[in-house]
Amino acid sequence: MDMPDEPASKRRCHKERVRVTRACDACKKKKLRCTGTLPCASCLRTGKPCEYTAEYNRGKLPQVRIAQPAPGTEQQQKQASAVEGDRSPSLQYSLVGENCTMPENHAVENPPSRASPEPHQTDLEGHYVGPSSGVSFLLRAQRKLHKYVALPINTPIFTFGDSPLPEAESTFMLLPPRNEANALLTRYFDFAFPTHRFLHQPQVESWVEEFYGAVQRSEGVTPGTRGKRAVVLMVFAQAKQSQLDSDQSSARSLVSSAAYFAASEQQLSAETGPVRITSVQARLAQCFYLLSQSRINHCWSLFGTTARLAMTLGMHRARRRENGAVDHIESELRKRVFWCAYSLDNYLSAALGRPRIFHDDDIDQDFPTVADDSRILRDQILASESTTQSIMLAPLYHAKLSVIIGRILHDMYGIHRGSSQAEVAAAAQHGAHLTRWRQELSGFLDSSNVDLLMLTYQRQYTVLNLAFYHAQILLYRPFILRHFGTNNRERSRNDSSSRAVDQYIKVCLVAAMKIAAIIRELCEKRRMYSTFWFTHYYAFSAIMILYLRVIQLAAQKGDGGEVSKYLHTGERAQRDLAGCCSQSSFVQRYVVVLEELRQEARIAANQTDHPPDATRDQTFSYGGNQGIGQLGPQAFRPDEIEVNRMEVAERLQGSNLMPAVMESDIPGWTEGGAEDNFPVPASSGLADWEGLDSLAIAGLGELDYLFSHGGS
Predict the structure, then answer these.
(1) Does 66 fall in a domain?
(2) Looking at the domain assignment, is residue 384 inside a domain?
(3) Which of 42, 77, 506, 521 is most exposed, with the fewest beta carbons within 10 Å of its own?
(4) How many whole angstroms separate alpha carbon 487 and alpha carbon 506?
(5) Phi, psi at 702, each rounded to 5°
(6) Cα-trace Rg, the chain
(7) What are phi and psi of 400, to 5 degrees?
(8) What percent of the chain has pLDDT over 90?
(9) Which residues does residue 37 pair with via DSSP β-bridges, in sequence order?
(10) Which pTM was predicted?
């Protein structure tokens, strides 16, 4: 069916929708939609004079487009010419389209201020994404990822973008000597997973006995045995890559670890019969291993199966048994496995910007009992005979923290979010829960003698502190961009909750600084491993917050001391993070993306100190990777800096990483248009961006669908 012709009043020279960065004085005063032209459509319709004399405080003064009058509007044309004659030359600019003409004198004398030798691009909504666009640093990061992080394109769709696993033979594998197996077991339970303890150590030790005994006696495989063997092999794989005397970058260590993983996969693929708890344990261990190998897409696919197997066994529901014997080992393992899976679900959702699998309304499982493995027997749980802290206290509180994080993701990052006041109230509620959580563990988390503790407690101390500060970042970072382009005077006039928002921003920045300090300490003490996926992800999130704050303070002409402090801390943390870099790892990708954001922050900081150079900051020295470190200078026009800084925030507001503020929350926003504001990307179809996290973590092609490149 043919659609009726569009009314002439809605045509704009047969061009795509135009972004309006400035409204005329009359439309601005009445908060009406304005076309941003001279004269605008509203003034033409009412016959009023159209002027652009009001003060403009949002960066570089934009140029006003000269409207092309339709035939029969000679009076309006004279009015526009008269107004134009009183304007400065910098405001004279004409649109060029298929059926539009540019005045002869304007073509050479007044080129667009955002002209660039690079070709202009637009996304699928028609927005400009060329070199001076705020999204351009994402495009540059993506190009560098393609250049420096070469990944094969012939990989399955479920693992595309992942780092390749070393080749390993899964059909034939020699078990390690028994003394080495015992050392691997000890290393796993002491170091590998300090707060994600979903295995029972005495039980796993008995499985190792059975495994070696069956191999020596050449016994056949009985039902349920393959799951136990898969768990044992994954314990070996995790422990092997975290050994003290193991060079994490050496091919021998990685291949050996990958061989155990491949053998575990082979055991699980041959499983038959009903689903068993060992099937879930082995696959959950594989998910954590894949993250340590920078294979998050593979992990995401496998975790979907793992979570549904756990729900098949009813692990998300509490068992109520009034009569009959209870196997306390199995009961505790069900709790442990579920809450570790729940925690991983939250982190995968936050990192990838994708929905969670577990929903709080469907869960009534109890938390694990605070009892060491040696005290948990099949028929009873023995009371502790020691006054020392239980190993299971930290896993319990990590599970409780995961519940708070799950609620934060639902309220602050969900599709259906409330108003600005509702988000402030939600942040206050979740912030109070985080404070209470911290107070309950303050005696441990604020300890001043951490180095005197056992290795397991040292690891628990570090992991819980990092997880807590990252939870604060998740909760408060949306507010950093809420009023990105407004000064303090405007905020106090337009936002009754500005005092609370200011406090949230301070807490978020303190959390980012704390994470940077912990990363610095780990590197100084040589305790940072290339397999610490969670630690690397926390560091990436914190550094990004510091750089964005530098850009924001520079845009608001903020304190130069704060700008310098955050920039210096971010750059130092970036160097520390780069020291963990290995080929095609998450860290390698993090550094590429962070470098582009660092360049934007450096330019913004230079704006507050002295006039910027005509080129971008030259290079940034990294601790291990030559190719990424020498990124080289790139042309960057000084007159593009202000616009670019503002659009960086707006593009990030449209991502899942930084949830966009609602249109009604923006000062001066009116239905259908904005006064002096760039349109919010969330209202322009960009709310589905997976953000910086997804760009750096999930692969190299996450931005491709946004831009029309003319190919298939």
Answers:
(1) yes
(2) no
(3) 506
(4) 16
(5) -70, -20
(6) 29
(7) -65, -40
(8) 38
(9) 65
(10) 0.71
Residue type, 135: V
Secondary-structure breakdown of the chain: helix, strand, coil percentages, each rounded to the nearest 5: 55, 5, 40
* Token reading at 682: 């969330």
| pLDDT for 650 | 46
Q: Can you tell me the distance from the alpha carbon of 76 to that of 65, in angstroms, rounded to the nearest whole number?
A: 15
Token couple for 349: 């959702």
Q: What is the DSSP letter of 663?
A: G
Q: What does the pLDDT average to over 165-189?
A: 80
88 and 141 belong to one structural domain: no
What pLDDT is attached to residue 20? Answer: 74
Query: Is position 74 within any domain?
Result: yes
Shared domain check, 363 and 254: yes
Residues 6+ positions from 213 with CB-CB distance below 8 Å: 219
The verdict on residue 165 lying in a domain is no
What confidence tens digit (pLDDT) does each residue in 668-681 have? 333 333 333 322 23
541 & 429 share domain = yes
For 75, 320, 324, 330, 392, the CA distances from 368, given in Å and listed in that order, are 80, 15, 21, 11, 8
pLDDT value at 426 more than 50? yes
Asked if 370 and 390 touch (Cβ cutoff 8 Å), the reply is: yes
Rounded-to-integer distance, Cα 456 and Cα 199, Å: 15
Residues 438 and 505 in one domain: yes
Return d(Cα 143, Cα 341) in angstroms, integer: 35
String of DSSP letters for 609-650:
HSPPPSB-------SS-HHHH-----B--GGGHHHHHHHHHH
Q: How buried is residue 524: exposed, middle or buried, by Cβ count under 10 Å (0-12/13-18/19+)?
A: exposed
For the segment 581-622, what is each residue's pLDDT rounded down to a tens digit? 665 577 888 888 888 889 888 988 886 554 434 333 433 433
Length, in residues, of the chain: 712
pLDDT for 10-39, tens place per residue? 444 454 556 677 888 888 888 788 888 888
- 515 or 55, greater pLDDT: 515
User: What whole-number percentage of the chain has pLDDT above 70?
Assistant: 63
Q: What is the pLDDT of residue 585?
A: 74
Which amino acid is residue 448, in one-letter code? S
Rounded Cα distance between 663 and 355, Å, is 23
